[in-house]
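Q: I'm building a small set of examples for a reading group on sequence design. Run inverse folding on the following structure and report the sequence directly after it, with nothing in between.
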């Protein structure tokens, strides 16, 4: 079985949520990497400018907050991600409750939108990653 390389980036301007998401995804990724014979790399950012400098063509998944500080939103980053890594799947994980905003992020290129107050938000994010990794390993 060949090794699959899978790259995840997390961008959330809240130190608390960023740490929480990164810890959960990292823990889940350990099990996934064994099951899928994958090398999973996770990079985490609280600053959208540092994230923009990091953007690379081989990103597989980005988990993105909606409001990113400095007037930037997920909508701004979606365009940046699309330009740098067209095959990347983006999950917006946000406090934003407005259905129009959720719909717009999907229309603008996000694959999924999950509200942070959903008690299953983190497991849903993990399943999203597992689904994307499974698609890549089958390709």
């Amino acid at each position: 079985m060949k090794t699959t390389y899978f790259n995840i980036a997390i961008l959330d301007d809240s130190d608390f949520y960023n740490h929480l998401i990164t810890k959960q995804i990292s823990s889940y990724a350990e099990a996934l990497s064994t099951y899928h014979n994958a090398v999973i790399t996770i990079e985490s950012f609280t600053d959208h400018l540092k994230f923009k400098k990091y953007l690379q063509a081989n990103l597989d998944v980005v988990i993105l907050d909606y409001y990113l500080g400095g007037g930037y939103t997920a909508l701004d980053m979606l365009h940046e991600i699309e330009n740098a890594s067209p095959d990347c799947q983006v999950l917006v994980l946000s406090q934003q409750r407005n259905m129009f905003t959720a719909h717009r992020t999907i229309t603008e290129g996000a694959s999924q939108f999950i509200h942070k107050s959903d008690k299953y938000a983190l497991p849903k994010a993990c399943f999203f990653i597992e689904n994307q990794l499974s698609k890549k390993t089958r390709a």
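The radius of gyration is 14 Å.
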